[in-house]
Please model this.
Amino acid sequence: MLCAIYKSPRKEGMYLYVPKRDDFSRVPAPLREQFGRPIFVMLFNLAGKKPLVQVDNTKLQTALEQDGFYFYMPPPQENLLKKWRETQAKS
Model:
């Protein structure tokens, strides 16, 4: 199964996966608005030997079949300064 991968111009690390290139018909309108104009990255074969780095291929394939898209947003970055201050306050 092939999927098309798009990145968001609005937020670094935000990606949208769809089963067909340039077919966003099953992506909800609010998500499309938040995502911005999708920038095509590549086509990816989910049945291939190489897995994706950020997403589990099986989970992705299931989402594409059921929902018609998969949205990936990176986890929030850890604020190291805040963490350091908290440890200093405790000691």
